[in-house]
């Protein structure tokens, strides 16, 4: 479990380095592929999850999630 604490600290530092407008995706096409089929209010646009996974993969293996 201590290893996860270290990874958490690394992730916090990584996220803190991002510019303030990193998460706005104003210039990103969030409707590409099948992402425009359904429109739900307050949905997390896929670039958010894509970027979070990309950053986390630098510090932790997340190829599969434990059940």
Number of folding domains? Answer: 1
Topology as a string of helices (H) and strands (E): HH
Q: What's the end-to-end separation, in Å? A: 17 Å
> How many beta-strand elements?
0
Q: What oligomeric state is this?
A: single chain
Question: How would you describe this protein?
Answer:
This protein has 67 residues and is mainly alpha-helical. It has one domain. The protein has helices at 2-16, 46-56. 0% of the residues are buried. The mean pLDDT is 79.
Layout of helices and strands:
Elements: H1 2-16, H2 46-56
Key features?
mainly alpha
The gist of it:
With about 70 residues, the protein is mainly alpha-helical. About 40% of the residues lie in helices and about 0% in strands.
